[in-house]
Amino acid sequence: MSVRTPDPNSGWLSDDELAVIRKRLPLLYVEAVPVRVDGLGIITEVGLLLRANSSGEMTRSIVSGRVMFGETLRDALFRHLEKDLGPMAFPLLPASPLPCHVAEYFPLPGISAYTDERQHAVSMVYVVPVTGSCDPRQDALEISWLTPQEAVSPSVLGEMVGGRAALLKAALASAGVLT
Amino acid sequence: MSVRTPDPNSGWLSDDELAVIRKRLPLLYVEAVPVRVDGLGIITEVGLLLRANSSGEMTRSIVSGRVMFGETLRDALFRHLEKDLGPMAFPLLPASPLPCHVAEYFPLPGISAYTDERQHAVSMVYVVPVTGSCDPRQDALEISWLTPQEAVSPSVLGEMVGGRAALLKAALASAGVLT
Amino acid sequence: MSVRTPDPNSGWLSDDELAVIRKRLPLLYVEAVPVRVDGLGIITEVGLLLRANSSGEMTRSIVSGRVMFGETLRDALFRHLEKDLGPMAFPLLPASPLPCHVAEYFPLPGISAYTDERQHAVSMVYVVPVTGSCDPRQDALEISWLTPQEAVSPSVLGEMVGGRAALLKAALASAGVLT
Amino acid sequence: MSVRTPDPNSGWLSDDELAVIRKRLPLLYVEAVPVRVDGLGIITEVGLLLRANSSGEMTRSIVSGRVMFGETLRDALFRHLEKDLGPMAFPLLPASPLPCHVAEYFPLPGISAYTDERQHAVSMVYVVPVTGSCDPRQDALEISWLTPQEAVSPSVLGEMVGGRAALLKAALASAGVLT
Which of A24, A125, A135, B7 has the fewest CB within 10 Å, making it most exposed? Predict the structure, then answer.
């Protein structure tokens, strides 16, 4: 079986299959806001990923990805953290799978604060302290560490798309960062 | 177009399509524990549905159902509450889509506390006060209103399947019902 | 015993006693953001109280008050809602005493986002739907019902003191109102 | 100034002062359930302290203590964790001061699930992962590390007083430990 042929019993979908399903079902995602905390647990820095989107624009985003068939939310969260931040990030995952925020993305605007033109996706959002060094992989060009105040400044929020500015503020508010 | 032919652009899936997708993707569900509260908001009664399962056994369950393509969690919650409790239940939906508990159902036991032999499903769980009269429809035979203490008694919990005994206790614990 | 003589065994304190204790202990408060919700539970309006503060300035505030000795958080919340909104407000209290936000007020600024020059107070904050008609009593002059967007506009937030602008945004964020 | 004479401007109270205040005001506490987590954040062990109570009985308890005047919840939590677990426990404090559970202790039973014959106390409860080595100090004789299942077994819960069995179950439920 070649690398390009997915196991038909696995949760991995071909691009064609995914394209069909995306028009029929809400997809389940996990998203994580990476943070650094001090010895008392206070958030000192927020990590934002710099990516080029499909039209070549630079945007800031957070760790994000789909939950696979058979995979727990926790495993999906760990997998996407490792994929986006590298193997030495040493994230501290939450004890509970309960998210701090739920973001509902729809193809068309106006239904919620979140849009994703590709699909209807429901994302479980977590704030995750990382204790190691981050080395973005895949499509992210770099990770920037900003103070919480910088992270929620209009200029930074303006570089986020699909409603992720609202998501970032809500996630940080749940972690005690007031704006 | 006959009633049995779903709109190919809708989020409604044929049984065959659903059977295929159930082996490839986690499905998104909402579940609700119906409760009655007193004037101070304290839970006085918990509503459990009596259903016959596929092998004819009677089991107790809660309001539960799939989230459709294009549907918000809130709309799905309202639709399933109406489907299971009737149009006069007058549920008080939560202001936030954040669930009180997340239940991850897997086909095989041992991965989490929850099992569903049909599928991998991730369920957003809510505790929902109802203020009207409930008239179970569809496959539920009746709804029983129990005190919180009765609801978490071993004999009642023993009539719940797929881990819903743990779900009920966790949902009620989040609402201040201690056991 | 005259009306002005508090029962020495009660939790009610004379002004002198309270003045002493305020310099020695954190006081426990409850605060509530009154809201109106639609049939699906979505917040449609936020109720803000107009009060004159000690220097005669008009400020906007929320329902707030101290927890007495022997009183549950729920009873304190109900008592202050009735005191500030009148007996016909019919608030829907949360099932759980877990607040949506905790505000720590200190006499000096810089320790947290919240200040109260009179005391160190720790406030359990709740978002409370009200279903009846509100008739502010005591020191509140009136209650204004604003849309969530109006409530978090800079001009309205600018009329709140002691950090309550941050409190209002955090409480509404916990209830799914994104800004 | 002798060691026994507290600074009259400090938040530290003499035993006599505390005795008086305990009959007039609810006191604010923090409590922490110490846990050990694995690399995916799953709770593997729960730390329970063994103490002799005032009548000489051995009881199991958790980290607990009063919040002082001028002290943040976070600082109080850190101080009591260090006092009860020693300076090398390296606790990971939560980013938010929002507790996972609120326990209301009253002198008389029947008002809530929690009793404390000395006082009316309202306790903010947290689940706190510790990463270092624990060396109980003060009045605790030792700390036992139990699996979550052992910790919520009837025999262990039976050694907890004042309702802390219910507290432990509620706190662990909030962290995804189902029973």
Answer: B7
Q: Which residues 6+ apart lie within 8 Å of D54 measured at CB?
A: none
Q: Is A6 on the interface with D (CB under 8 A)?
A: no
pTM score, two decimals?
0.92
Six token digits for residue A102: 């739920």
pLDDT in tens, C54-93: 778 889 999 999 999 999 999 999 999 999 999 999 999 9
C23: chain D residues, CB-CB within 8 Å: 9, 69
Q: Do residues D152 and B173 lie in contact, with contact meaning Cβ atoms separated by under 8 Å?
A: no
Domains observed in chain D: 21-174 (3.90.79.10)
Mean pLDDT of B125-145: 89
**CA-based nearest residue in chain D for residue A79:** D40
Q: How far is C170 from chain A (nearest CA, A)?
A: 6
Residue bearing tokens 């508990």: B101
Distance CA D166, CA D171 (A): 9
For residue C52, the SS3 value is strand
Decide if B127 contacts B32 (C-beta within 8 A). Answer: yes
Beta-strand runs (E) in C53-100: 58-61, 63-66
D29 token code pair: 């506490």
Distance separating alpha carbons of residues C59 and C67, to the nearest angstrom: 23
C109 in contact with chain D, both atoms CB, cutoff 8 A: no
Number of Cβ within a 10 Å radius of residue C69: 20
Grouping H, G, I as helix, E, B as strand and the rest as coil, residue D64 is: strand
- The answer to whether A67 and A28 are in contact (CB under 8 A) is yes
B28 vs A contacts (CB less than 8 Å): 25-26, 28, 122
- D75 membership: H or E segment, kind and range: helix D73-85
The single residue listed with the structure tokens 């996407």 is: A80
Taking the C-alpha atoms of D31, D87, D74 and A78 in order, what is their torsion angle to the nearest 10 degrees?
Answer: -90
Strand positions, DSSP E, chain D: 27-37, 43-52, 58-61, 63-66, 101-106, 114-115, 121-129, 140-146
Q: Do B50 and B40 touch, CB atoms closer than 8 A?
A: no
**Does A174 contact chain C (CB < 8 Å)?**
yes
Rounded CA separation C40/C164 (Å): 28
* Structure tokens belonging to residue D65: 């203590």
Please give the Cα distance from B26 to A71 (Å, whole number). Answer: 8
Contact B174 D174 (CB under 8 A): yes
Best of C9, C23, C25 to mutate (most D CBs within 10 Å, chain D): C25
Question: What type of residue is A116?
Answer: D
d(CA C3, CA D144): 54
Of C42, C92, C95, the CB nearest to B176: C95
Alpha-carbon distance of A176 to A67, in angstroms, equals 27
Tens-place pLDDT, residues A81-136: 999 999 999 999 998 899 999 999 999 999 999 999 999 999 999 999 999 999 98
Paired tokens of C122: 């720790």
